[in-house]
Every structure is written in C-alpha cells, then in structure tokens.
C-alpha cells in the first residue's frame, strides 16, 4: 500500500517522538495553569504601570531603612527586597503608590515545580534538556508536515480554513483542531528549540558593552528629581537594583525592556547604558510565548494547544491502526502476463482494496486467472482480456496516492491485446467532484484504442457494500458469471445488541412491503434517521434499516425480497416477539435543527425515517415538504395515516406523490421535482435542506434533476452542503 511522502514523514516523526510529546503535552497542560492562577492573584495594582519611578522610590525611602531591589514581573506584580525599620530583611509584594506590603511572594506549587522539571529536562539534567530540544524540533517538523497534509486535503492553501467533510471522528477532529492549533504549535516549538539552544549557549549572541554617556551640568537637589527617575514609569522597567554602598562608584542599575542603565546615586545622571542584544530580546519573547506568563489569554491558548497535541497523538495513532486494519494483504496466484482478468486499484487509505479483494476472490472461486495491482503499477498484460479499475478520489477530484502516474503510464505503455474494461468509482457525495477521478480514468480508457467498455462507469457512495454488490452482479452477468461476495464483518457485527419487542405490524401490501413498530426493552437514545442493525439468525452479516422514531418506538419500513434472509426473518416476526438488534447513530441524516425549509425525498421503503421526522411534535421551526415515489396508490395506503396526521398538524406543508404504475401515466419522483422546480430552487437559494432516502438509482436521478434545477434557475452548481442522503 503506497503512502504519501508527507503522510509517511508525519507518521515517522510521530512514532519517533510520541512518548516525549505526550510527556511534554501533559506537563505543558499542567503548566499552562500556573500563569493563569498567578494572574488571578490580587497583587497587580491598578494604574501602577503609569506611575513614575520617582514616586515609588520616595515611598520606599520613607517606608524602609534600606532597599536592595525592586522587581516588576510579567504579571505586573511589584516586589521589593528591603530592610525594614525593625531591621528585618524581607522580600514581598508592595503597592507602588505607598510602598506598603500587599502580600508574600507566591511560592511555586510543588505540582508546578515537578511539571516544570519534567517538561524542561525530564529530570535528566543536560541530557534531558537536549532531548526536549530535539523533540521540540521534531514536533515543529510534524506541524509543518501537518500543514502540508491539510493543504493537500483541502485542495489548496486558499481552502485551508474552508469546510472539512466529516468522514470519521478521528480524521475530522485531527484536521479541524490542526487548522486552528498548528500556528500556536509552531510558535511553541520554535520558542522551545530557541530556549534550548540559548540554554546550551549555542546562539551567536553579540556582546553589547556599557557605553559611557556625557554628563550634563545641572544637578538635581534630590535624586528622585532627576530626569531619568521622573520620566520613566514602572511600565518601562523590569528591575531596579539599588546602590550597594554610598560609594560614588555604586550605581542604581535599571533594567528596562530593551537596555540596562547605570545611574549615579548622587546626581541621578545616566553614567552608562547597554542595549540588549537580539538574542536577549528574543529569549525574553520566547519565554513569554512558551510559558504564557503574564497573559491569561495566551496561557489559555497554550492550554488548549497542549490538550490538542494529546488528542493528535491519540487520533493519529488510532487512524494509523485503522489503516493497518484496513490494509489488505493481497497475494497474486498468477503473474501479470498469465492472468486473464486484471484488477487495478486506486486507493489512498486502503478501503478500496477491501472491495478489490472481494472481486478477486469471487473470480478465483469461478476458476478465473486474476492479477491484482495498484494503478501506479500499470504495465503490459500479455494474456489479459478484461481490465477492472476500482478507484477512489481525493482532494478536489485528484487521484489517490497510488494512482498519480496512471494517466502517464496508460499513454506510454503499449498494450498488445484488446481488453474489455469497467471502472468503479469509490467516493463520497459530500465532495464537489463525486468520483471525479474515476470519471477521468473512464474517459482515458474510452479514448484508448485497445480498451472497449463492457459496462458504464459505476459510482459508489460512502463505500456502500450493497452498491458494490449490485455492480458485481451486473458485471458478472456480462461475463455469464455468478459471483458470490459476502459483506466482510465490520465493527457493527461486534456491537452490543439490545432487545426490541414487536408492538405493531402491518400485513404485507401489494408491493411486498410492511411496517414494523418496535419497542426498546431498555431505554435507548436515538433519532429518526439513525440505523437499526439487524443480524438475522441464519446469517452473521448485519442488515441496516433507517429508523423512524414514533414516540419512544422504532418504525421500520421493510420490503420482503423472495430470497432476502433478513427481510424474511423480519416478516416472520409476530406481535410481542423479541428482536435482538443494535442502534447506530447516523448524525448526518438527522433532521436539521436550524433550516427554515426542509424537503424530504424518498421512494419505496425509504420513507421510514421521514415518517418519524414528521411525527415529531417539535417540528414547528421549519416548513416541510415530502416527495414520495412508489408503484401504485395502493402502495401508499400503508403510510397515509402518518402523513395525513402530519399534514393536519401542520408539520407538513406539501405532499407530492408519484406512481410509476399510475392509472393515467407513469411518474417518478424526479418528474414531481421538476413540476415543483420553483419550490426546489427557492429552498436551494435560501439554503434550506434537502434529504434523500431510498434506492441509489432514485438518488442518482434526483441529484441529476436537482443539478439541472440549480443550473437553470440559480445559475449555480448544486450546493451539496444542503443535501443529506441515506440511500442503499
Ligand atoms: C481528504 C479526502 C478527500 C476526498 N475527496 C473526494 C472527492 O473529491 N470526491 C469523491 O467522490 N470522494 C472524495 N473522498 C472520499 C473518498 O474517495 C472515499 O471515502 C473512498 O471510499 C476512500 O477510498 P480509499 O480508502 O480506498 O482511499 C475524499 C476523502 C477524503 C478523506
């Protein structure tokens, strides 16, 4: 399985540093609370920043016998080290207006001391510090590769912050959090590396010396009258060190934000000054940006970023494990020049290989010689007569990673035989270019002299096994083959089953369909649009049905197929029988909370979730319309009471039925939509929601009709963000 260079680098970096990253992120999370808790203490004095230093010096002089230094920390807490009138040496926070003590210096809580040591050096002194510096750099590289991966996923730099399609919880939040925390991560890691280099004196600091300043003639009567003490405010300084003795050579040392100044203690004149070099300034900024000291908002950003890093480690590894689980180990029995059937796969995350393997096994079971490979491995095939391409689409309709060279290879590799081909696209309707790469492959092969289509392109949404099985059946028929494929066991096989009691059921109607109402034995949270996974006794493969929620019960609409194991199993159920099944959330098909207008489109038994939605008393915020297509008016009778009730209670504003075997003329849902194109274009224009449930064939027809309406009426492509589908 090919993996993109960026993803591989991202993964290798993660594997090599994850343990340290977890430690750094955990301790970082703890440490982010330190500046927050410090800032919340009451030692910052209002307006102190604009108070001139001379005022504070005077107050200090009156209040204490001697002052050693005055400090202003990042939280704007002012502390003084003094000798009191009682002769005690003390350091405490002061009010700079009165110089009176306001509190004792905050002692670092043991948890913060512990976390700081672990965070800085893993308790391994210099070795630990070096490791932390290196890990910081690795995390920086990971953030950079992460940004590249997001740009590739989103399609362009411009689309970096555009909507991300939710495919899977871990993948989605890895990307979403990544978008917003990669910049803080880059800041944290660069400053971390900088502080490590600084600590090991590896930075080329230019040494600035004290430069003597020229003295002026006037001498102030009091030291605090001097220009420098009057003109500077507490906001300008970080620390004042007081002269050690009365010696004229002992100065006030003022540490400002960008320089150090020596001031004569008798005349208040600047004796010399030294500018901070770039490295000193950068170190001070790095400390602030890395620790958040002095800013609650930035500390909060650091806190969220540290938590996100922990999530990245967790979600990143679970995605990798998932991919590993999905990875299909395929061994070829036949070589490329001996096989009659060639299967080529285009896949980014491995799921298409799973489908390809099903096809491979089914063909081998029929005694066929088959060779399977990736699209990037396209080559000559001496004995082949059939080519099947199964490919997914990535980015904005781009090829998956293992298909990047296919286009070129097809053009440059001569093929001896004429081959019949079929292309199956795996994609998602949530993206603009649904199966766009498969469409491209199909048209490439169409133009190729050696390839002849044996079936039109087939597109599969959301890895639907049912859709794939339908395709395999039809493709097999073109070769007079009966191909047997079984759905591979998925996670829902292992889901915990609950018991449901049959409380109502209808008899089978002229369409072989019936309604089943089930009562959960234990309280279960679910909504219309969720799925009920049923594992019929005779077979371990689960079958999913869309749920309509009626009160606290589940309503299913089922079509009985002659040889359908599950539908026959359900049809055999009688009142009060118990059914083991599992509810699965299907958030993407829940009724929208905020849409002003909602159009529900279904055919056949696809109406079930909508029957639940329109029975909900809370359905007052939107105007709702239902389109339904069935065979005859007789087919509709089973649902009519639910729909009449909703209409009567104003939960439905319009119902449009189409009958494919109607008395007067054949009519499909698509025809009804065209008749109501004004309504549809209005809902599309006003960003309402359109929900589709039923057969894939109906879904494809409906989407085509909606595309036409959008193009003709709104002059715009169909906005897929407004469409929710649940088709099978
Ligand atoms: C980042 C990303 C981009 C995608 N882009 C498209 C797209 O443009 N068109 C489409 O039909 N499907 C798109 N998909 C859906 C995948 O093609 C689909 O999930 C497919 O079944 C994945 O197969 P694979 O695991 O073999 O790569 C995208 C999925 C992801 C995660």
TrEMBL record:
GO terms for cellular component: cytosol. It comes from the Bacteria. InterPro entries: FAD-bd_FR_type, Flavdoxin-like, Flavodoxin/NO_synth, Flavoprot_Pyr_Nucl_cyt_Rdtase, Flavoprotein-like_sf, FNR_nucleotide-bd, OxRdtase_FAD/NAD-bd, PepSY-ass_TM. GO terms for molecular function: flavin adenine dinucleotide binding; FMN binding; sulfite reductase (NADPH) activity. Keywords: Flavoprotein, Membrane, Transmembrane, Transmembrane helix. The chain crosses the membrane at residues 12-33, 130-151, 172-197, 296-317. Coiled coil: none annotated. Gene3D superfamilies: 3.40.50.360, Nucleotide-binding domain of ferredoxin-NADP reductase (FNR) module, Translation factors. Residues 341-476 form the Flavodoxin-like domain. PROSITE patterns: FAD_FR (PS51384), FLAVODOXIN_LIKE (PS50902). Residues 495-592 form the FAD-binding FR-type domain. This is FAD-binding oxidoreductase. It comes from Algibacter amylolyticus.
